[in-house]
């Protein structure tokens, strides 16, 4: 199956249940190819077969996009099939699988600020800003980090006893990096980053109420 077919398959990954017939229509492939694609997806932890339908969750669409890249598609082409909600959905799903309590799209006032995802575990809040960007400049990343630090300070000031760490999650990074001790984490490395997070706290910027 060509990378073009896998790109079409991203569009067929719709949260909830979808039949192979409906998937073939959305993905613009024949029914035999649709069944083969769905079987391969489920074998790679993208969705779950349930009788005649396949069940997809919020994070499965970006998993399908990353799988399309493995099949030869460019990241730019795969990203064109994704929305910021798809990106946030996978990040939130990963945190939930790690037993974090999750808050999405948290709004603060005076001044108004929004945090994409808050994950809370063991007394520490991870404040995640999801950047579903095309390729970005170092200065744009610096600015995003500074804004996330300001959001984290605002959150801590308004939350009793909060200790929080700002984190940027991106699609285009190829490895974890740091700016001012704030981690910049590629989405496909978020799970391993979280596994190692508490052991690396001394190297990560955390903010607490002064």
UniProtKB/TrEMBL annotation:
The cross-references to InterPro entries, in alphabetical order and at most eight, read: Restrct_endonuc-II-like, tRNA_endonuc-like_dom_sf
GO MF annotations in UniProt: DNA binding; endonuclease activity
| Superkingdom as given in the UniProt entry | Archaea
BP GO terms, sorted = DNA restriction-modification system
Under SUPFAM superfamilies, the record lists: Restriction endonuclease-like (SSF52980)
**Descriptive protein name:** Restriction endonuclease type IV Mrr domain-containing protein
């Amino acid at each position: 199956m060509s990378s073009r077919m896998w790109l079409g398959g991203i569009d067929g990954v719709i949260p909830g249940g979808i039949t192979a017939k409906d998937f073939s229509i959305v993905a613009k492939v024949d029914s035999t190819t649709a069944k083969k694609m769905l079987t391969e997806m489920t074998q790679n932890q993208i969705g779950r077969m349930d009788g005649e339908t396949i069940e997809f969750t919020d994070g499965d669409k970006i998993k399908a996009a990353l799988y399309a890249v493995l099949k030869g598609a460019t990241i730019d082409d795969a990203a064109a099939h994704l929305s910021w909600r798809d990106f946030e959905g996978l990040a939130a799903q990963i945190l939930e699988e790690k037993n974090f309590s999750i808050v999405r799209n948290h709004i603060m006032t005076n001044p108004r600020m929004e945090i994409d995802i808050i994950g809370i575990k063991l007394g520490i809040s991870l404040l995640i800003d999801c950047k579903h960007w095309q390729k970005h400049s170092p200065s744009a990343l610096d600015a995003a980090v500074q804004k996330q630090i300001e959001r984290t300070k605002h959150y801590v000031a308004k939350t009793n006893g909060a200790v929080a760490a700002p984190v940027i999650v991106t699609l285009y990074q190829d490895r974890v990096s740091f700016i001012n001790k704030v981690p910049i984490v590629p989405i496909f490395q978020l799970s391993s980053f979280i596994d190692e997070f508490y052991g690396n706290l001394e190297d990560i910027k955390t903010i607490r109420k002064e």
